[in-house]
Amino acid sequence: MDSRIPGLYKLDPEDRLSEIAEATELSQEAQNKITTQGIDAAEAGAISENVIGTIEYPLGIATNFVINGQDKLIPMAIEETSVVAAASNAARMARSTGGFRTQTSGPYMISQIQATEVDTPRAAKIDILDAKENLIELANEQDPVLVKHGGGCEDIEVQLIETPRGKMVITRLIVNVQDAMGGNAVNTMAEALAPEIEQLTQGNVSLRILSNLADRRLARASCTIEPSELETEDTDLSGEDIRDRIIDAWAFAVGDPYRAATHNKGIMNGIDAVATATYNDWRAIEAGAHAYAAVDGYGPLTTYEGDSDGNLVCSIELPMQVGTIGGATQLQPVAKAALEILDVDSANGLAGVFAAVGLAQNLGGLRALVSEGIQSGHMSLHAKNIAIQANAPEHLVDEIAARMVAEEVIRQDRAEELIDELQ
Ligand code: MEV
Predict the structure, then answer these.
(1) Ligand 1 pocket by C-beta < 6 Å: which residues?
(2) pLDDT of 60-82, one tens digit each?
(3) b/e map of 323-342 (b: 16 or more CB within 10 Å)?
(4) Ligand 1, closest atom to CA 362?
(5) Which end of the chain lies in a sparser environment, N or C, as judged by fewer CB atoms within 10 Å?
(6) Residue 374 CA: which ligand 1 atom is closest?
(7) pLDDT, tens digit, for every residue of 116-141?
């Protein structure tokens, strides 16, 4: 499969889908699901409450990705312009050096059990650790299927924390959740262990819930960009200038949390779009990403460095709590089709894709920010929208948009004048 599909953007959506279907050998059934939308309100009622309908996002495909030596087409569902294009551009820049390499720490989720009003917290900690084997066994009885597939609770840790309401004893379950996001599995285990923990601590057990700071479930990605790949027709800056400005932009984010927040938002543009397309819980991913970014004082989740050959070396590391089975992923046929397009065989594989897309998104955004800025790209799409709103016939939309951008007058009344003039 070749993820480079030049001119994909010029096709209409139907032909685009055919191209993607051909490239990824997407089943006819999956293609039908994409064109007819996934679920009706009745089916949606099995996912959420008080459902009155469903709402759609544009589903686009980012091209050019090579991840661990394999070409990949990336489904992205997002309502923001320029995101899919920026990810595709950055992925193209990385191709000449082999694309993205990814690595994951393993699918370990952490679940926490809170015990309050413990008279002897230090002794309670020792008692819990003494009972570790029994506790692990009890946790694993809750999910024999996960255990059968090689997962399950593997360790128990105890933390004593100071809080505004006194010392608390926090028991942590470290659970290998295999290919699931794992929320249900680890929460069930924590709930099952609560009476034991209450007895061992002689305190009150209250919360029994996973932590989204999933720092035992990290995904990493890196890529190397030759300076010539960074050059753009829109500025006179050399590739080396752009490389240095990207490193400066990253340093700005290291030095200033106001910038780091936006830097990381750019990363999450890509990651959330893949999460939405595959029906993964983007709130969990967001919470994990920002909490991880804040562990040593809030900073950027990516890093940019220059190597001795003058290349830009880019990397990312963040928690990635995503699954290919369970949760809602299987309830939405378009999300199932998106997973089919991605063609990953494990949650770890999916986590690596998310990391690579986040890195590409950040690189694409920074490249634009340090050179031509992001408004020119936004403006041409905005102009297209205005032309469509002014009822421009389909064959005139691009021309009217281009004229308005050139004139720097992007308004509905101008679009209407141009429609009259050109018809
Ligand atoms: C816009 O959605 C995202 C950016 O602002 C990210 C950034 O500033 O790095 C372009």
Answers:
(1) 80, 262-263, 265-266, 269, 365-366, 369, 374
(2) 999 999 999 999 999 999 999 89
(3) bbebbbbeebbbbbbbbbbb
(4) 9
(5) C
(6) 10
(7) 999 999 999 999 999 999 999 999 99
